[in-house]
Amino acid sequence: MERTLIGDLKSKAGERVLVQGSVSVRRDQGKMVFFDLRDRSGMAQGVVLPSEDLAMVVAKELRPEFVVAMEATVTERPPKNVNPDVQNGDLELHIHAIEILSKAEIPFELGSEVNLDTHLDHLPFTLRSEKSKNIFKIQATIAEAFREAMRGEGFVEFQSPSLVGGDAEGGAAAFKVDYYYDQKAFLATSPQLYKQMMAGVFERVFTVCKIFRGEKHATTRHLSEAVCMDFEMAFIKDHHDVMDMLEHTIKHIVAKVIEEHGDVLQKMGVEAPLIPAKFPVLKLREAQKILGVSESEPDLEPEHERALWEWAKKEHDSDFVFVTHFPISKRPFYTYEDEEDRGYTKYFDLLFRGLEINSGGQRVHDYTELVERIKQKGLDPSKFAFYLETFKVGMPPHGGCSTGLERMTARMLNLPNVKEATLFPRDLNRIDTLLSTDEKK
Ligand code: AMO
Asked: What is the DSSP track for 183-249?
């Protein structure tokens, strides 16, 4: 018999079907045994009646998370047993035969409230909970919507290398890797240099790729391995063109998440993001004035980012706010200085619900200036010769930006820790399992 998905049972009333899935709950009531059975399409209740001797023997063995195949008749429930609040609440599977495909031994009940470490210790199991499945389905939609928005604007997707010769960000600690012939390579901290090279090829490019950051941060927003959604576009006037493109992309992502997962957001008690007609924009110094912080500070602290969210909500009905014009001394060598505001860059951060989810801006495209900027950062231009060829062979004014997928997901769903929005988070203490003290030395 062909498998029927639980989500399709409604159309099979009165028929005998084969369903396959996992047992969620078993309830024994008198001489009957009830189950909740789930597959990728949903959940249904099954019952083994006392007359089904053979099925009953197997039924008594079943425990939560056993994987089974069941032959059953799709039966309408008597009106007094109908539950309109659940999927398939008006039908029941009358089970005739059960085959156990896999037994299960579980550490705790699926979906139990456990602390983050316990959740992470048992990811192969806890990722199966409704909450986790919803988080990562929404994350998949975010990445898909990003790609969709980019393609709609004529961007070409490219694959960026993860093994690189150096650190593009000049500061973000890169993980060293043993390469051939006693050479050292690094894990990419960003696709930055490659997306610029590719903007020279296609004008408009994007990538969804892994970045690796070896900063020793133990915070709710830092990962050692993250997914970034980057784009780069040529022939821009300035950073505003990049911000407009990013805003368009973010709006498309939010709309698609609401369209496809509005019911889940509601169930999770999450408000849809506040989206104004135009995201508010503040120069860093304007933001600092609002916050009452010294304008000599080169960046915002996490509590400032949260305070700016309050400001954006109150003044602009927005969960998003751009902050621009960071001091050039604190930004990477490729950032463009504002000719009309010397010492400050045409660079921005986008804050979403009080957390930086994106950075970007206009890049230096003049070869001579770029070499000079590399030197000013105390770096050796000869180490960047490969990248610099892009500019020797002619490069239009261009810019781009990068959105952290996990951070975006976490803010969309109001998850307090970015690790809850990361399938298999790597941090100071963990690669899947906790690192032993010896490994930490
Ligand atoms: P930046 O270093 O700001 O910019 O990174 C861009 C975005 O990537 C995400 N992100 C992280 N998420 C989790 N853990 C981390 N350790 C981490 N590091 C970064 C954030 C951040 O906003 N090349 C520039 C971008 C550009 O100019 O186009 C860059 O990498 O959401």
From this structure: -EEEE-S-SHHHHHHHHHHHSEEEEEEEEE------SSS--SEEEEEEEEEES-SSHHHHHHHHHHH
Q: Which of 407, 422, 423 to mutate to test the pocket of ligand 1 (most atoms within 8 A of CB)?
A: 407
pLDDT for 215 equals 87
Per the listing, tokens 């989810």 go with 357
On whether both 86 and 141 belong to a single domain, the answer is no
Give a yes or no: residue 374 inside a domain: yes
The pLDDT of residue 294 is above 70:
yes
Q: How many domains does the chain have?
A: 2
pTM over 0.85: yes
**Structure-token pair, residue 370:** 């770029």
Q: Is residue 416 part of a domain?
A: yes
Distance 403 CA to ligand 1 centre (A): 7
* List of residues 6+ apart from 324 with CB closer than 8 A: 239, 281, 282, 283, 284, 346, 347, 348, 361
What kind and span of H or E run contains 176? strand 176-178
Task: Verify whether ligand 1 is closer than 6 Å to residue 357 (CB atom).
Answer: yes
Same domain, 159 and 238: yes
The range of the structural domain enclosing residue 47 comes to: 6-102
pLDDT value, residue 170? 66
Does pLDDT of 440 surpass 60?
Answer: no
Pair 144, 83 in one domain: no
Q: Is the CB of 402 under 6 A from ligand 1?
A: yes
Task: Indicate if the pLDDT at residue 187 is higher than 60.
Answer: yes
| pLDDT over 90 (residue 439) | no
Q: Mark whether 132 and 224 lie in a shared domain.
A: yes
- Cβ of 359 closer than 6 Å to ligand 1, yes or no, is yes
Read off the CATH number of the domain in which 16 is found: 2.40.50.140
pLDDT of res. 330? 86
Q: What residue owns the CA closest to ligand 1's atom 30? A: 190
108 found inside a domain: no
For residues 375-397, give the mean pLDDT. 94
Amino acid identity for residue 11 in this structure? S
Q: Which atom of ligand 1 is nearest to the CA of 400?
A: 28
Q: Which residues, listed in sequence order, are joined to residue 193 by a DSSP beta bridge?
A: none
Is residue 166 domain-shared with residue 82, that is, in the same domain?
no
Average pLDDT over residues 171-189: 91
Over 80: is that where the pLDDT of 328 sits? yes
One-letter amino acid of 388: L
For the chain, give the number of residues: 441
**Domain co-membership, 319 together with 248:** yes
